[in-house]
Every structure is written in structure tokens, then in C-alpha cells.
């Protein structure tokens, strides 16, 4: 057996050492890659957490906005109900005042006529009719105005549930008409613009507002630079403010979205539709209708989208669309929301007209009271004059008939003494007691 040579172990040991070194390097490289992956994962998790928190904040903002809108709606309904009750109370007070005034006048007139009526001659009665005629006309006019307001109140103040049902039915019909006509237009921009104005006109007609009084169509105005602006509709408010409504938004891309076959085509059309609405918001905001010197506009403009689904799809694609428009002082409305808004404005105008009628009635009641007071003063003077006439008549008659030296007795004594007469004096009957 040859002797053991340890030199051959050196390559073996070197190989083991090199293998261990390579293994350590590979493990370190894997560990470094895993650390990088872990860092990327943690970074991605932080980004996702930030996005999640942002979405939660946005959700809270939307919930807060919804609560504010619901609160505002409740406040408006409460104000309308309070105004209605106030008007009913005023109307009831006027009815009561009219009835009381009529009763007092009839009682007073009956008492005066009972006391003094038998003393009037035909001429006095004719004069009394002339005095009473204006008062009678005032009472009849007052009664007509009260009855007219009561009739209008009964017609206009129906059940709130029935009003909401009519509003819902009108919105459904309007939306169905919008869908049917939109399919027929097929991307004709000019026809779409005209059709949008027609839908807007239909909403205005169903709102109860009157053209030429509560709203105007296609007015012409110039801004401070002399540029001509033609808003589609200007709605007047009772406070002297104006609201501009624009209906010129293009729906060509929306038609492409509705008629697209594939999902990719629909998504591309939806993107163009969203960009079209954004672009129109920017263009409408740049017109600065609220700065027109000849208008007293509110700080926002209503942008009318005639198809509910068109705005709904754009809003789903970009939930910030409404907030973005609001920042530019633009409020996007559809037939449903616009009709509800215009109905609220119509209710405000109706209450304004009722308040004006109440003011007229109060003024007329004041004039009627003054006229009645003047009549009673004149009537009292007539009674005093009649009493004075009665006293003068009694004194004159006493001189004729009473006492030993009265005129009739002295005249009869002349006849007894032989004075010729054609006919003797008539016997005077004593006056009848009242």
C-alpha cells in the first residue's frame, strides 16, 4: 500500500471552499432580491392604503354632500309647507274679517235704517242709495277677490303625494321620449341641438312657468367686451335674480357609445362622450354669464343634458365630473332634476302671487273701512239734520196750532168776523209717533 499523500486533499478542500462561497453568494443574491421584492410590495401596499383612504374620504364627502342635499330639500319642503299654512291662515283671517265687517255693517245699517228710515222722503232714500252704492260695490269686489283667491288656493294646493306621482310620471314619459328621439337623430349635431332645445321647452311647459313672464327663450346680450351671447333660456326668480340654462351639449359620442358593438368600441366612445361633456363645461364656464351687466344671474349656470342615461354613464366613468363642473360654477341637470327645480321655482312664484293678492286685499279692506267710516259720519250728519228738521217742523206746527194765539185760531177768528174766503183751512192731524 503506497504511503498517504495529503497533497491530493488540497484541490478537494479548495473545491469545497469554492462551492461554499458560490452557495453563499447565491443565497445573498436571492436574499437581496427578496428584500427588494418586499420593499416594492410594502411600497405598493402603502400606495394602495393611500388610495383606499382617499376613496374613503371621497365616500365620506359624497355622503356628506348627500346629507346636505337631503337637509336642504327638507328645509325647502318645510318652508313651502310653512308658507302654505301662513297663506291659509291669512286667508282665513281675511274671511273672518270680511264676515265680521259685513255682520257689523248689516247690523249697524239695519239699526240706523230702523231708527231713521221712516223719516226719509223719496228724495232722501234716493240720496242714500247713491251714498251706499260705492260701499256696496266695494263689498262685492272684496267678496269676488276673496272667492277668487280661495278658488285658486283650492286648485293649486292638491295632495303632495299626487304632485309627486305626477312629477314621476312626467319624468318617465320625458325620459322615454328622449331615448326614442335620440335613437332617431343618429349623430346629427345640428338636429341634436334643436332636439335638446325641444326637450328643454317641453320641461319648461310641464313646469308650470309662463314664457315671457317667469322665463325667456333665446335672448341676446353683450358682455363688457361687446361680445354677443345668446343663452337658451333665462329663468326669472321672485327675488329679481336670473338663472341661465344652456342646452347645446353634443351627444354624438353618446350615440356612438349606444350603437357600438364591441366592448373596446363602447369604451372608446364613452371616453369621447366624457371628453365632450368636459369640453362643453369649460366652454360654458368661459362665457361668464353671471358677469353680464344686463342680467342679475346667480353664481352658477345650469347645463342641460336631455338624456338621463347620457349623464349617468359619464358620471359613472368620472365620479368627479359633477364636482369639477361645480367648481367652474356649472351645475349639470337632466330632465328629471331640471323639472323638479323648475317646479320649486314655480311654487315660489305662486306664493309670491298669493302674497301680492293678500296685500291687495288688505289695501282694499283698508279703503273699504275708510269708506264705511266716512259713510257712517255722513249718515250721522243726515240723522242730525233730520232731527233738526223735525224739531223745526214741530216748532212751526206749534205756532200754527197750539196756544190761544196760534195762527190758525186767529185766521178762523177773521173768518168768523166776516172776512170772505173761498175755502176753510184744513184740519191738521197730529204727527204720528216714531
Automatic annotation (TrEMBL):
| Gene Ontology annotations of biological process type | DNA recombination
InterPro entries listed in its UniProt record: DNA_recombination_RmuC
Q: Does the keyword Transmembrane helix apply?
A: yes
State the coiled-coil residue ranges.
Answer: 38-111, 150-187
**Residue ranges crossing the lipid bilayer per the database entry:** 6-26
Keywords attached to this Swiss-Prot or TrEMBL record, sorted alphabetically, are:
Coiled coil, DNA recombination, Membrane, Transmembrane, Transmembrane helix
Q: What does this protein do?
A: Involved in DNA recombination.
PANTHER family documented for this protein: DNA RECOMBINATION PROTEIN RMUC (PTHR30563:SF0)
Give the protein name, as stated in the record: DNA recombination protein RmuC
Amino acid at each position: 500500500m503506497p504511503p498517504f499523500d495529503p497533497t491530493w486533499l488540497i484541490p478537494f478542500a479548495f473545491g469545497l471552499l469554492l462551492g461554499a462561497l458560490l452557495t453563499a453568494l447565491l443565497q445573498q443574491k436571492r436574499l437581496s432580491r427578496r428584500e427588494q421584492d418586499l420593499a416594492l410590495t410594502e411600497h405598493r401596499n402603502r400606495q394602495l392604503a393611500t388610495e383606499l383612504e382617499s376613496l374613503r374620504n371621497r365616500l365620506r364627502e359624497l355622503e356628506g354632500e348627500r346629507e346636505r342635499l337631503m337637509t336642504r330639500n327638507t328645509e325647502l319642503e318645510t318652508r313651502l309647507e310653512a308658507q302654505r299654512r301662513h297663506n291659509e291662515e291669512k286667508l282665513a283671517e281675511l274671511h273672518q274679517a270680511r264676515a265680521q265687517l259685513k255682520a257689523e255693517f248689516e247690523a249697524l245699517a239695519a239699526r240706523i235704517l230702523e231708527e231713521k228710515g221712516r223719516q226719509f222722503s223719496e228724495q232722501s232714500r234716493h240720496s242714500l242709495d247713491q251714498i251706499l252704492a260705492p260701499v256696496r260695490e266695494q263689498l262685492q269686489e272684496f267678496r269676488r277677490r276673496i272667492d277668487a283667491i280661495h278658488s285658486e288656493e283650492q286648485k293649486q294646493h292638491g295632495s303632495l303625494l299626487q304632485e309627486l306621482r305626477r312629477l314621476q310620471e312626467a319624468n318617465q314619459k320625458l325620459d322615454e321620449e328622449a331615448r326614442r328621439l335620440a335613437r332617431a337623430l343618429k349623430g346629427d349635431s345640428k338636429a341634436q341641438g334643436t332636439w335638446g332645445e325641444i326637450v328643454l321647452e317641453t320641461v319648461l311647459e310641464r313646469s308650470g312657468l309662463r314664457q315671457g313672464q317667469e322665463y325667456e327663450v333665446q335672448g341676446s346680450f353683450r358682455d363688457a367686451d361687446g361680445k354677443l351671447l345668446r343663452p337658451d333660456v333665462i329663468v326669472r326668480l321672485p327675488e329679481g335674480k336670473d338663472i341661465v340654462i344652456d342646452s347645446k351639449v353634443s351627444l354624438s359620442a353618446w350615440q356612438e357609445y349606444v350603437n357600438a358593438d364591441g366592448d373596446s368600441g363602447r369604451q372608446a366612445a364613452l371616453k369621447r362622450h366624457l371628453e365632450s361633456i368636459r369640453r362643453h363645461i369649460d366652454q360654458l364656464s368661459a362665457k361668464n354669464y353671471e358677469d353680464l351687466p344686463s342680467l342679475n344671474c346667480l353664481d352658477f349656470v345650469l347645463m342641460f343634458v336631455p338624456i338621463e342615461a347620457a349623464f349617468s354613464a359619464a358620471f359613472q366613468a368620472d365620479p368627479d365630473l359633477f364636482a369639477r363642473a361645480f367648481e367652474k360654477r356649472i351645475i349639470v341637470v337632466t330632465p328629471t332634476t331640471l323639472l323638479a327645480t323648475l317646479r320649486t321655482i314655480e311654487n315660489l312664484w305662486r306664493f309670491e302671487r298669493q302674497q301680492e293678492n293678500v296685500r291687495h286685499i288688505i289695501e282694499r279692506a283698508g279703503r273699504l273701512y275708510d269708506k264705511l267710516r266716512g259713510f257712517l259720519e255722513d249718515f250721522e250728519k243726515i240723522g242730525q239734520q233730520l232731527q233738526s228738521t223735525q224739531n223745526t217742523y214741530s216748532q212751526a206746527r206749534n205756532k200754527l196750532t197750539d196756544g190761544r194765539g196760534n195762527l190758525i185760531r186767529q185766521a178762523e177768528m177773521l173768518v168768523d168776523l166776516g172776512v170772505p174766503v173761498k175755502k176753510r183751512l184744513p184740519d191738521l192731524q197730529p204727527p204720528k209717533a216714531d
